[in-house]
Every structure is written in structure tokens, then in C-alpha cells.
Amino acid sequence: xxxxxxxxxxxxENHVRTYLSMPDACQLIGIYDNDKKRSNHIAKKYNVxxxxxxxxxxxxxxxxxxxxxxxxxxxxGLACIRRNVHMLMEKPITSTIAQAKDLLHKASKAGVKLQMxxxxxxxxxxxxxxxxxxxxxxxxxxxxxxxxxxxxxKQVDVVKDLMIHDLYILHALLQDNTFEFYALGEVNExxxxxAVVITKSSQGVTAxxxxxxxxxxxxxxxxxxxxxxxxxxxxxxxxxxxxxxFYRAYK
Length: 251
Hints:
Elements: E1 2-6, H1 10-20, E2 27-32, H2 36-46, E3 49-50, H3 54-58, E4 63-66, H4 73-82, E5 86-89, H5 97-110, E6 114-116, H6 124-132, E7 138-148, H7 158-174, E8 179-188, E9 191-201, E10 206-212, E11 214-226, E12 230-236, E13 246-250
Parallel strand pairs: 1-2, 1-4, 2-3, 4-5, 5-6, 7-10
Antiparallel strand pairs: 7-11, 8-9, 9-10, 11-12, 12-13
Helix pairs in contact: 4-5
């Protein structure tokens, strides 16, 4: 499968590196970024071709990763649909619900696959937890996802960047689309930087989610209460040879 990457910031670079590590599964044809300096830097660093426009890249590939800022997802997504190019799109899907519904509808109608970058659903621990607790009665869930803020994150919404992972994990665990939300937090320069959400599902399950750029260190973890047991997990990034992050679970 021939693939490309649109948007070569920090996340886009991760996609470039990952595709290059999978030569038996795909061929990275090239990249595009409207920041030519950044595009040329990534192209030289990874020895890949920088394309001069989105449309030029789309003419040569079967699928692309879309890692541009969220406000451009809808526009780039429509371009992919016009060219019948499948998409792996970073979260969140679009800036508005209306755009998301329209993009999903048009992709489905055109037979174009649109996969969101909800990477945590493919985390082996989350998959294990979903299977292990499939028949358990969930009472409550607590999520924490904290990270130090920096100048690069000045305009980044902590809900869309961090909490969104726990929102879709919560949905995957509960399989419930109806929630009652209460939210509090801190907003700096019109951008949420610390957020706490308390929610209750239609099944009566309560959940508390905290996401913040106000922490001195990265903390990721969650606790799940059930009628017969209690699970607590925490994300670790050890200082080992391959530096592979993992979750440790306690029951």
C-alpha cells in the first residue's frame, strides 16, 4: 500500500517514522506540509520526497495520515474523498460536529475509509481490560492524564489534546452514548489548560476525568470500580533499551 503524510509537525513526524519502520506493510511515497522549511527538514532527515501540494501527493497514494491542525481536517478530508484516498486522521476529527457528520457521510458514500487516531484503543492493556471486564458490572471510573505545559502548547486545548483519549476509552468500556456532564477548569487566553469532568451514564455508571497542562510531570492512569473487584492502572515510560511505554495494572 502506498501511503503519505500530510502535516509534518511533531505528530506527523511520528507517522513518518512509523511508516518507514513497516516496509513489509506499506511504502511511504512522500509528505506534504505548508511550512516548506519544516517539510524540507523532515524530507531530508528521513530521505523522503516532499510534495508541493496536497493534491499532488493524493494523486500518488492509496492512503494518508492527516496530522494538520484540527481546523484544516475537514478541508483536507474532503480533498482525500475527492481523490478516493483512505485516511488515518489525528484526533479530534473536525472543529465542529456538523463537519464531522458531513465528512463521515461523504467518506462512507464514496467508499473511502476514515479511521480516527484513537491510538489508546489499540493499547494492549486497554484491549485486555475490555476483554477481562466484559461481563463485569462497572460502578465507577476515574481517569487522570496530566502533563507539563510549555510554550508550544500555548494554544492547545487540554480537553481536545489529552482528555479526548479518556473520553473514547470511557465510551469503549461502557458502550453507552448517553452521558450527563458537569465540567470545571481553568482557561488561559481562551484555551482550557486544566479540566475536570464528572459524568454519569444512562446505565448509572459515574466517571471522573481530569486532564491538565499544570502538572510538573506526566501522569497517566485510571481506576475502575466493579461490584466484585477494583482495577487500578498507571502508565510508565521506563528508562530501558527500547524505551517502550507500558501500563501496569493492579487488581
